[in-house]
Amino acid sequence: MDKVTYVGNADVNAIEHLYQSYTKDPESVDIGWQKFFEGFDFAKTNYEDGGEIPENFQKEFKVINLINGYRTRGHLFTKTNPVRERRKYEPTLAIENFGLETADLETVFQAGDQVGIGPATLKAIIEHLEETYCQSIGIEYMFMREPDRLNWFRDKIELKNRPKFDSERKIHVYKKLLQASNFEAFLGKKYVGQKRFSIEGGEALIPALDALVEKGADLGVEYFVMGMAHRGRLNTLTNIFQKRPQDIFSEFEGKEFDADGAFDGDVKYHQGYTSSIKTKEGKEIGLTLAPNPSHLEAVDPVVQGIARAKLDHHLSKDENKICPVMIHGDAAVAGQGIVYEVVQMALLDGYRAGGTIHIVVNNQVGFTTNFHDARSSTYCTDVAKTTLTPVFHVNGDDVEAVIQTIEIAMEYRQKFHRDVFIDLLCYRKYGHNEGDEPKFTQPSLYNIIAKHPNPKDIYLKQIAAEGAVSSDAAKKLEDEYNDYLENEFEIARKNEKAVVWNFLSKTWEGFRGSKAEDFESSPETGINKEKLVELGRKLATLPEGKKYFRKIQKIFDDRLAAIENDNLDWGTAEMLAYATLLDEGIPVRISGQDVERGTFSHRHAVVKTEDNEEEIETLNMLSDHQAPFTVYNSLLSEYAVLGFEYGYSLATPKALTIWEAQFGDFFNGAQIMVDQFITAGEDKWSTQSGLVMLLPHGYEGQGAEHSSGRMERFLQQCADENIQVVNTSTPANHFHLLRRQLARPFRKPLVVFSPKMLLRYPAATSSLEEMASGTFREVLDDPTAKAGQVDTLVFCSGKFYYELKEKAAEMGVENMAFVRVEQLYPLPQKQIEAIVAKYNAKNILWAQEEPANMGAWTYIAMNLRQIPFIGITRPASAAAAEGSKKLHERRLKQLFADVFQYASVTAK
Fold first, then answer.
1. Which of 49, 146, 233, 657 has its CA 20 to 30 Å from the CA of residue 684?
2. Residues spanned by CATH 3.40.50.12470 within the chain?
3. Was domain 167-230+281-476 assigned CATH 3.40.50.970?
4. Which pTM was predicted?
5. pLDDT band of 46, cuts 50, 70, 90
6. CA separation for the pair 199, 197 (Å, rounded)
7. Residues 342, 347, 349, 353: is their CA dihedral positive or negative?
8. Domain 516-772 is in which class?
9. d(C-alpha 685, C-alpha 688), whole Å
10. For residue 91, what are the CA distances in angstroms to 67, 74, 109, 130, 142?
């Protein structure tokens, strides 16, 4: 039973209940209440004889209600905004709302124990509360339910209040502010009018991040993974990550990248970076800043995935050793739904990374949009409340308050491994970028900002008054830093090219980039047949002595029979591919909606016993030396989960990472991740990924949202060997495809239009021999066609092949060959041309089940112009598929008619 910690609205009955609990067992109430009751000599009252509770005793609880009022609502009356007026109130007026009077200000109340100052006058209690809750820091935390978190947080801020920095610490903080401020001024002077997305107005971010790293290192963090948008990114790179200013200056000079001519690169404020730095205590700390596009907050799940991968594979799952840090903008954190998705992932088994430090650089304006047009909530950080996450609001002009907040947040994260938000209230010195005019849209605000001193000058004035630094010493520090920047600038001007940074280069040591010839054929990926049988039996055998649902038992019995009878369906072949990789020491991770069972009940990677729902994973029961297999049903998210798995794949090149969509076109909920990261990441940031996307695809009369994985969208983005797009049609080829993903000295994202119908289709089976030898086959010739009889060659892809072959058999067609293009990109052009040459047909068709404006038709026609293809498709359509089963059948009948108009048939 949790101890009682406070009474929200204390009345006589609540007081009596609390006191009686205390008299029975002092340990049943919080320590603060124990001290409170110890301060009263109840024996001298007539309370136990039925008399009234003394007036002062009642007022004690009115004071406690006042204290709780500060705790819950004090954040509304703070001095947290450096450039706008906030709500004002007089504490002496506030006490009247709690049944207290001005005359009570000099009365000593035992309730002072509740805030850590012991018995004190009401005036002293209020002053303590004002200092704690209504100055430069506002705090929202009373909604947390767990007493341990609540008490820790309350004690941390009420008992310790504001720390005292010694002169050495103050000078160090000033140096970081100086670096932040002067770096921006230097860029503004040397590169007039160029976009840099200055941190000016929010310079406190730099000493805050410095303090975060130092405090985290003291508390056991060995690695920080960060994500942030463009504002302040260059400053963070040079002054926290220690990227040389000369490299940033070279990027401003617009120099070409030191890479091959096909590399496009990205703008300087999108690029990632990894460094190893030493803290003041001499500890080595790894820092990674993930690259990201202009799609604000899209990087959030990528950071989480990188952090989780490092936890799983490098840090023994010790959440103390790695800390994700997200740096948000106020408009973005409130406006982008991905933030909510990521927040909801924080405590889920498949996605947790030990808690994230969220820092919002609150400029109070988004591009040109005022905050009251950017959200309906009170604060931009109110998304945090959905998961009862504590939130700090802190004045960016009070750098010591910012650092105190950061350090408490870091301590909280390390103790509870939960998220925490810091709303850093500041301002944007200039417009959205340095060429923008903010007075077009915020003239009043920017009149104030123009006259407002920057945080560096504010802090210098403070510490000079305190005697921590002299004006001469401050000038010397400034001159030294400016000289350093000038020297770096001169070096940059002499550099011929800008450096391309692979932000995870150490992780990817031993891998190379791909070459066009790598895709002319696939490597050998077969596995000894005896090993296949051994592994197949293990993955298909459930442990004895447990109660299983009869249908589950039958599925596994059938799977075992398939192994023994050498006739494997899709699900068995897929599981066997995973088993072989695990046996070779290659970890496998799958996540997505309902992937444990599989949307179409073909996988059953996790089996639950019928009586107590014990989870059985036969893929983790192969051997003592195997790699781990992990599979997670995801939250109902595509955007965040796909981003997470992409991030995970970046940090695990020697593992197989898979995201499966419930239906193929559901990936469009994560289209940003595809466009900005998966298909373009290597070309922009020199960043490889081996992520696999399984997108169930096929036209079966199930409507527009359950048919198409939008093949055409991926094919349109194909260039520079950036991704692989396949539409496999046999279990064996799918087996080899999954194994191929780990068999080459480079990695590419793999987009698989995986089947639905073929999962249990009698004709779509494979033998163990087909998996024991050979490779993934990019093109599958017609196994029954005879070249001399064929005058019409039909190229197709995926499950449509089986429908065409069955129709051809039904009609007795003799003159047509049906060839499957299993890999659509990189296009196996030489293999296709060889088949065309083999048959020398007078008619060459591309037949697909998708509409003319979808699927692969336009891609094939454009990329194989030398071949006179005739396109056979459904009519062009706005929707991906028809919603009526009858209409589906009618259109399929027409497709057959269009294809087989070229047929000659045997007499029957």
1. 657
2. 516-772
3. yes
4. 0.94
5. very low
6. 7
7. positive
8. alpha beta
9. 9
10. 12, 11, 17, 8, 20
